[in-house]
Write a structure and sequence with these properties.
alpha/beta, Rossmann fold, 3 domains, 5-stranded parallel β-sheet, 16 helices, 5 strands, about 55% helix, EC 2.7.7.7
Length: about 400
């Protein structure tokens, strides 16, 4: 039993990094040392706040309030100085937050990053390059990055983010200082949603619980009735599975929902980008695009197509995480753990499903979900991966058509 005194809530740029006190302490010490390690690897499951932690660390490295003695916090990353505010808003000239909306990073993307790393921070302490989803970097792309990680330019700090150390090549992770993040507790996420987003206690608790303490997902569920409805439709599907034909229909419904969500997001963004490009080129909204400018619009369309493919994968992965929660709840009921269910509002339906499954079968369903998530990231056609999953979720004693 841990009897140590509770740590005071983080302040400044680290204020929203809830439940990560040990990591925050390491990052603050590194930022205040004046000689931080040149390469870092932030790992943790989805919802642990890897990107938020990386942004906060980048802000702390360049915090001017701490240097001048003007900040009132307990270390670098005051959140009040101009540098911290720019970092948090995404406008800091010496901090690059890099992500990909494609299935993987391209070698050209990595070479561009290396070129950026050569630039001096121009009046700031450190040039910080944060690579989100570093696990999406192919082996060839990673090898291009390796030399810059080994011998970075002066005043350059690399921060790579990935779900686990195993998701990054050993040649990279062996050259990085590792920061491990965890999923924050429900109480911490609930309190954050109440204090920051203005939710009432009941709304915040529900969003925190069903999101499995993923802060970003919790905020989306709290803010969007459509997102809540889509989630409820998804988690209800395995509760109705009785036959192979139902499994095929359920798979088709899941994939269709993911594709519709991805297409809506991609279309909306493409329209905004095309409108912005028209304005920059001096074209009226309905004016025909001159032939010499069409390549620029074609490039936007190609990028949108690549984003849509990644968006379908991400949407399906979120759904499979929600389905994983269903079978964790079933297992909790079967083992009579006495703990609150993630989907407490579905307890009656979950109890009925638990009657049809043994604990071993529930574990098998969890394995099938993990396999499906892996297959989707490996470019298996979503329809095939989800159909195989749904077939595996049919209770064995009732697996007939």
């Amino acid at each position: 039993m841990n009897t140590s005194a509770p740590i005071a809530p983080a302040t400044g740029v680290f204020a929203e990094l809830v439940g990560q006190d040990h990591a925050i302490g390491q990052l603050k010490r590194a930022a205040s040392s004046g000689t931080p390690t040149h390469a870092w690897l932030f790992t943790g499951p989805p919802g642990s706040g890897r990107s938020n932690a990386a942004r906060a660390f980048a802000a702390a490295l360049n915090c001017t309030g701490y240097i001048s003695g003007e900040n009132t916090s307990d270390g670098p990353g005051c959140g009040e100085c101009r540098s911290c505010q720019l970092a948090l808003s995404g406008g800091h000239p010496a901090i690059s937050m890099v992500s990909t909306e494609n299935v993987s990073y391209r070698i050209e993307d990595v070479r561009e990053l290396i070129t950026t790393a050569q630039d001096r921070p121009q009046g700031h302490r450190w040039r910080v390059i944060v690579v989100e989803d570093a696990d999406r970097m192919t082996e060839r792309a990673t090898n291009v990055l390796l030399k810059s990680i080994e011998e970075p330019p002066p005043q350059t700090v690399w921060v790579l983010c990935a779900p686990s150390p195993a998701d990054v090549l050993v040649t990279i992770r062996s050259r990085c200082r590792h920061i491990s993040l965890r999923i924050p507790p429900t109480e911490a996420v609930t309190q954050l949603l109440v204090s920051r987003d203005g939710l009432n206690q009941q709304q915040a608790e529900f969003a925190a619980r069903v999101s499995q303490n993923h802060i970003g997902v919790a905020r989306r569920l709290a803010a969007s009735a459509e997102a809540r409805e889509r989630r409820e439709q998804a988690v209800a599907l395995p509760l109705k599975l009785r036959s192979a034909s139902q499994a095929v229909l359920a798979a088709s419904e899941l994939v269709s929902m993911a594709q519709a969500e991805a297409e809506a997001e991609s279309s909306s963004r493409l329209e905004q980008e095309q409108a912005a490009l028209r304005r920059s080129l001096g074209l009226e909204p309905e004016e025909k695009v001159p032939p010499k400018l069409r390549s620029q619009f074609k490039r936007l369309e190609d990028e949108s197509t690549r984003r849509a493919k990644r968006a379908v994968t991400d949407s399906l992965d979120r759904t499979l995480i929600d389905l994983t929660a269903v079978y964790r709840d079933v297992l909790s009921i079967k083992l009579d753990t006495g703990t609150d269910l993630i989907n407490e509002h579905l307890r009656g339906d979950l109890a009925e499903l638990a009657e049809r499954l043994s604990p071993e079968q529930a574990l098998g369903c969890l394995d099938a979900l993990n396999t499906a998530r892996l297959r989707i990231t490996q470019n298996v056609p979503p329809q095939l991966a989800v159909e195989a999953l749904m077939m595996a979720l049919i209770p064995r004693s009732r697996r007939s058509d």
